[in-house]
Amino acid sequence: MSNRAVLEVIALDAEDAIAAQAGGADRLELVSDMAADGLTPSRETYTRIRAAVDLPLRVMLRLADGFAAGDVKALVRAARELREEGAGEFVLGFLDADGRADLAAVELLVAELADCRWTFHRAIDRAVDRDALRGQLAGLPGLDTYLTAGSATGVDDGLPTLLAEAARRGEPGYEPQLLVGGGLRLDHLPTLLAAGVDAFHIGGAARPTGWTAPVSPTAVRAWRTALDEPALSGATPAR
């Protein structure tokens, strides 16, 4: 069994996707409009990226900035259209006005995503109770990943939470993979890897000159190398 950690990179278009694959990414998160923290890409964008690379693609389902579901019927239509184009993995996450998981919205989308794997994204970092949110979502079909920084303000502040949650992996509600992202830096990796975290998500870190520039394969390669070095040295992450 491979000890290779998963490296997921945000891609806005086919140019990003090709560069991320060249740098050693394992998976892409497809979004549009990073000024709104990532919205659903068009089906045409998905098709172009799918033709350009052979990496797994997780497609964002989010139509407006923030963590309210908004027009759920429009979300379902977007999911259906993307599935018609061949998409089979998704990213979503919605909270209600009380900061709990919006189960009504999530369950409607999950029904549309039958047989698809999906990530609950950083809405968990804004939840009033992270553990309760995991309990709400436990058992939903296809949920295999939580994207989280451990805190709404990023990994620096969320590191203690991430380490505590990594230690609970396998418990009820903690079976999905912990995918760490949001203010993640290379110097965070040794601590996270030692705790058994095995999946990492980067966006701005793959674009050293900012979001107006495409993904840099050199930047992605630096992350791939940093993640691979512990495995190459024979170190075994804690579990």
TrEMBL record:
Family, per entry: Belongs to the CutC family.
Pfam families on file: CutC (PF03932)
Protein name per its UniProtKB record: Copper homeostasis protein cutC homolog
InterPro entries: CutC-like, CutC-like_dom_sf
Domain of life the protein comes from: Bacteria
